[in-house]
User: Fold this.
Amino acid sequence: MRSTFLFAALLVAVAVGALVLVSNPRYHARSPQVRGTVTLVGDSLNVGIEPYVGDALPGWKVVTTDRAGRTTPEGIAELEAGRAKLSNYVVVSLGTNDSPTGVADFRRNVRRVLALIGPNRCVVWATIWRGGAPDVAFNGVLREAADANRRLLLVEWAEMVERNPELLAADGLHGNGDGYRERARAVAAAASGCSPAQSAGQG
Assistant:
């Protein structure tokens, strides 16, 4: 009888211990933590990377405000209206739909975009390919801006497709699936290599 009593007591102790473990929230499975948030503000080339950015930045939240055909002035209007709730990381794709002769306007517009985003956020901006070649003038503007702003990082899209034209769709302007996947990976690498200032926005 004594051994039976001890065995029953042991079972009760095990059951109570299991109940404590289950009821203790420390032992519950935790939800995956968001490592960061990235906001996309751009044109159809940003639309193209939307399906791939999440895989390129695992654990990150991706917020998209892109629209095909958007010009840089239209992107500025989007930012000025505050419709894009900016996170610490902002991926910009603007300039491809602007007039190729408007270099001075593009320079002013790049400054305005960066001013609206603010100096404390990390900005990733892809260089421009159109007309079957890199847009040397517009890309020069972006390089000047990057030289003056350590939190502006360029994704060398124009160089990527010049080296590997098979990344382009049949229209010679947009990426194909492989192209957008590689562009998304380059965007992720740039974002991961930048640290926003402590006073930047959430995410």
